[in-house]
Specification:
By secondary structure, this protein is mostly helical. The chain has helices at about 10-20, 25-40, 45-50, 65-80. It has a domain at about 10-45. The longest helix has 18 residues, at about 25-40.
């Protein structure tokens, strides 16, 4: 069993909602929590959201992140050697 302390305005709104729905405050709280749990479980993390875009516009060369320094040196040398 869990006890929750609510601000007075929230308690009053809950009471009105329960009365209007002809149900208990506990049932409304349970329904709200279930909705929150469902939403939290169905949310994707940032990796999952962008996964389809990763590498989509890439060069196809999987070594660029480790060989970029040598590629930059080659480009600089080629530029200097062309003069």
């Amino acid at each position: 069993m869990t006890t929750v302390r609510l601000p007075i305005d929230v308690e009053q709104r809950l009471e009105i909602l329960a009365r209007n729905r002809h149900t208990s405050k506990s049932d409304i709280i349970k329904e709200a929590l279930e909705s929150m749990f469902f939403k939290a479980e169905s949310e994707k993390d940032s990796f999952s959201l962008g996964e389809e875009y990763f590498g989509k516009y890439g060069s196809g060369d999987g070594t660029l992140s480790t060989s970029y320094k040598s590629k930059v040196k080659e480009m600089i040398n080629a530029k200097h050697n062309s003069h």
